[in-house]
Structure formats: structure tokens, C-alpha cells
Amino acid sequence: MDWQNERDILERLATLQKSPPPRKEFVESLRTVLKQETIRVGKRRRLFLTPLKAGMTAVVIASGFGLYIMAGMGQNELVDPQVTATSSPQLPAHPVYEQAKKLLQELAGRDASQYAVNGMLSNTETGHVVMNKTVNNILVLEDQYTFTIDKAGRHHIKEVQTNDTTGMVFPDPKKAMPEKQAEQIFGQSARLLYSEGEGRLQYEFPFSGDIDAITGEIYPTERYHPDYTLVEMPPIPVKPGGIQLVAPDIEEADRLFREWGFEPPFSFVVHQGSGVHTYKVETRTKQKMELTVVTETGDILDYRYGNIHENEEKLPHPKQENVQEAAKQFQKYLPLDTKELLLGSATRKGNIETYQFFKSHQGVPIMGGYTVQFDVDRKQVIGIIPPYAEESKPLPDKNNAMSREDATSVYVTHRPLRLVYKLMENQTTGKLEPRLVYHIYYHDTPLYMVDALTGEWVRR
Predict the structure, then answer these.
(1) pTM
(2) CA distance 445 to 460
(3) Which residue spans traverse the membrane (predicted)?
(4) Is there a contact between 168 and 189 (Cβ–Cβ < 8 Å)?
(5) Bond preceding residue 20 cis, omega within 30 of 0
(6) pLDDT tens for residues 30-42?
(7) Exposed, middle or buried by CB within 10 Å (0-12, 13-18, 19+), for 360?
(8) Are 338 and 368 within 8 A, CB to CB?
(9) What is the band of 150 on the pLDDT scale with cuts at 50, 70, 90?
């Protein structure tokens, strides 16, 4: 394992805790990306974590100006978080576009007339131009030329992605459902969440997919979004203790591992980083754990139990008695104003189940949860990752929230659904075939949501 690269990621997270501190949602986003990469890479290699690299599922960029989670970035994608690409389908003339058209003519010859500038992905400020093939005056997403041109008109980067569409039958756009109908399908994903750090009630849209413009079927796609899905289970009452969960030194880490049911003595190796350090721990029975904390405060950033090599699987219906026992064992670390917990996603790997617990207000989840690992054989909590700590603000009344439909209208005003063709594999024949879909371009990051009271379009 490349421990240096791994620590670099966590050091970035620790750096963000300095003044001005990042919002809790940013830190939770980083943790989720790290977890997703662990799961994805773990299917190929039995490692706790493979560091993120450009071209993989996500890239984390930390700077003094904020944290950006570049979700779903491939090696051919260029993203500038400071600039929003042109969103109008009717693009004004621009020298960059004209230069791109000349380059396309040189490459595609007579076929160049079949291509048009994709205004949603192109950016005249950065000289980034994407030109997609068109059929029935509709863009084909999987057939495109990408150019990067400087202000002097010099061409720097050229990327080509083409597919032979000869003989393909493209669906008639006249048969497409109205855009409003597609927006209603999209809006069904909206969910209410509270942000304690902002004192805000907001609608988030975790929708991930394309909507078939003719049948209404949803074709799932991978898009990063924190998982606040709740398991159908009654709220779990708790008796909070208000104790801070920290491990600033080996003595406190030793105490935690004893509390989590591991048998001492422990062998500790401490990896120091910039602002963080990681306790690598091994028990007498060769069990291995890792605990990463902020050096200055001891706040826990990450915890890993790496002794089970089975595949992790989703657990849609965990046993209520296991969930209640896990909550009972860690409730002393909950803030004193916590009355109950909601259960989010649950997974199982061997005999270890992992639960996501959320505090709630008026029955609505509060962003930033507790990740709790529970040994179902021993009925023992074996690890806890608390949410990023920040000062909380009073939360508004959910009864004053706008409707889901109104929030959806605000969202699609900023991220409109576009009618496009996508080449998708036919599961029966294995061949690509065009589908007419309503597509949302998630080319700009980070995530956005709608303030449920004001209707403001706000960034995480």
C-alpha cells in the first residue's frame, strides 16, 4: 500500500479544518468519495484503500478557496470549477468556435457539417470546445471532437471520440414526451435534508441517470452524491452522553480499541503526516485496524477494519435488534440534544455490518452521519467515524418548506434537461443502439441544491 499517497489525501482534509473551516458537507463528501474508491478498488485488490488518481471515478481538489469533488471525471474531461459553461442551445458567434470549426473541417472533412458545438460542455473563457455529431438536429453524446484553443488561436489539445452510426435507426424526436413530463420524473428523486452548519432546510436531487424520452424508463448512470437513503425502520430513541469522540494520543486510541472489544495488548505504529496521523494497530490475534485523526485535536477522520476479504454487499433489511444494540453502545458520544436516530444505508461484509446513523429534526435527516461498524457475532461495536464537528445553527420549521414541484422547477432552471441521443448497449444483442433521452449535464461541480424556504439555488 502506498501510505504516503494515502496520507496526502487525509492531510488535505485536515488542512481544511483550519480557519476558515469548511462546511460539514464538504468533509462528508470527501469521506464518501474515499469510501467509494475503497469499495471499487477493493474488488480487484485486497487493500484498505488505493489513492485517488486523475482519470478514476473521482478527484479531490483542496485549496484555500474551497473543496471541489470532481465526480465521474474521466481522463478526457476538463473541468473548471470557477467558470460555468454556456447553457443556451442558441450559441452566439465566437472566435473560439470558429477556430474549432476549422480544425474539425481538417479532421472530419465532409462529415464536419454533421457536427455542432455543444454549448453545455464548451467554454469560451478557457477555449474548451466540444462538438457533437447531430442527427435530426439533436446531439449524439458518444460522437464528439474536443478542442482546447488559446487566446491566440493556437490549438493545444485534440481529443476524438467517434462511433460508426451507419445503419443505426435513431428514434423520432417527435415521439418524445413533453419536457415537463420528464421534469416530473426527475423531481421524484428530490429529498429534504437539514444542514446544521448552515441552519438550512434544503432539497437535494440525487437523481443519477437518463430518462428515456419515449418510454419514461430511467437508465442509471454513475454520479457521485452522498447517500442519505433511509432504511424503512422506526426512529431509534437514544440517551446521549455528550462525550467527545477523540483520540489525540496512543493512550486514548488504546482505550478506544479496548472499548470496541479488541483484546490487548496492541502493537502501535504511528504514521505522522501534515496535520494528521494514523495509528496502525495489530492485536495479539493478528487483527489489523487503522485510525486516522487530526493531530491538533484528535478528531477522528477515518477508521478501517481490514481483516475480512469477502465482498461487501448492501443490507436492505438489517435486523432491528442489531441496529438498536449498535446505537445503544455508541449513544454516549451523541450531542446532548439528540433524541433519536434515523438509519441510513447498511452494508455487510462477512460478520461485520456497517450502519449509517443520522440525527434528525422534525423527522428530516440532518446531513453528516455516524458510520458505525458492528460485529453481529459478538454483538459489539468495533469502530465509529463521527461526522465532522462544526458549530450548529437553529433549524427552520419544515412546515414552511416549498413543494417538491416548486423546488424541481428551480433546479431545472439552472440545470435543464436536454434532449439528446445516447448510444447504449442492447443487453440482448450486445450492440450499441441509439436511445433518445432527457439528459442533465453534471459538468460543473460541486453539488447544488435548492433552499426549501427561499428557493435560492445554493452550492454545497
Answers:
(1) 0.74
(2) 9
(3) 47-71
(4) no
(5) yes
(6) 555 455 544 444 4
(7) middle
(8) no
(9) confident
